[in-house]
Amino acid sequence: MLVPDPKVIRKLLTRYASLRIAQAEKERQAAARELVDLSYTLCVMMGVTDVHEAIAKADALLADAARTADADGESGLPLAV
What we know:
This protein is mostly helical. Helix content is about 75%, strand content about 0%.
């Protein structure tokens, strides 16, 4: 099974969160379309059909990547991508 690059997943999750916040402040059709597309992309990359499940799996992937990096003596993923 292919495992998505944690840096790519982090970038997608960051964009997803930004869009959700923007939509909560003021709904815009362009942002809504991008949010739908991004939700689909997250689901495909994580191998699920529900965006909430995709986010949970993505969070677990990032946590595992951080643990692996710590065990390897690396500093882990940078906060800014």
